[in-house]
Amino acid sequence: MPWPSRKRDKGAVADKKEPDAKIAKTKEETPDKEEEEKSTKPPAGSSKSGWKNWKKTKESDSGGEESKITYCHWLLKSEPESRLEKGVDVKFSIDDLKAQPNQTTFWEGVRNYQARNFLRAMKLGQQAFFYHSNCKEPGIVGIVKIVKEAYPDHTQFDQKDPHYDSSSRKENPKWSMVDVQFVRMTKRFIPLSEIKTHHLAHKADGGPLKNMMLFTRQRLSVQPLTQEEFDFVLSLEDEKPH
């Protein structure tokens, strides 16, 4: 039997630890347009984030070639603490995922057009960060992979589900979901506050997190990541917390 919906994006709440985030509902009639990413070579100068040393390592691995920016990884937000929505607890932590058969679940309940389109763009085998959101200490806790590409989200037709959508029709479903499987925990918890520190530094010196959607599209529970963004954030697990 399917468990209660726990991932959401309809009026998603920005993280409590993110003071710049606006708590607002994204109108479905006027969905957000995806911002264009611009490839910018970082200027000379010092970087408090230490990203230049990371970039040198990456360049030595790739022969110094700068890759074209495309979205090939993802960040998925889920709430690890109990919260009732229309009488249903939407809590779903990474430990809940690990406890599922085959450590696999469908990622349902997304009710934002831009986030839905990101779900539909996911490809089999791509990896995503599992991000604990709307909690005391939000941040990245693990890695999952896409094991089934987008298909209709059954909760849109379930009147008992918090994410029921009476305007959606089975012959032309509005909403989609994917299946994800647990890969591993990150070597350490990577908090939002630490990622934001790097984001602010990269905005100044042209580092890979300068346009990260975690800060430019805070409300979205499904977010794309470039290869550089994913690799840089992943490199943080080997560093000591600040």
TrEMBL record:
Q: Where is the composition biased (Low complexity)?
A: 41-52
**Domain named EVE: residues:** 73-235
Q: Where located?
A: Nucleus
Write the record's keywords in alphabetical order, separated by commas.
Answer: Nucleus, Phosphoprotein
Q: Name one GO cellular component term.
A: nucleus
The family database entries (Pfam families) matched by this protein are listed as: EVE (PF01878)
Q: Coiled-coil segments, which residues?
A: none
Please report the name of this protein according to its UniProt entry.
Thymocyte nuclear protein 1
Q: Which organism is it from?
A: Psophia crepitans (common trumpeter)
Which gene is annotated as encoding this protein in its UniProt record?
A: Thyn1
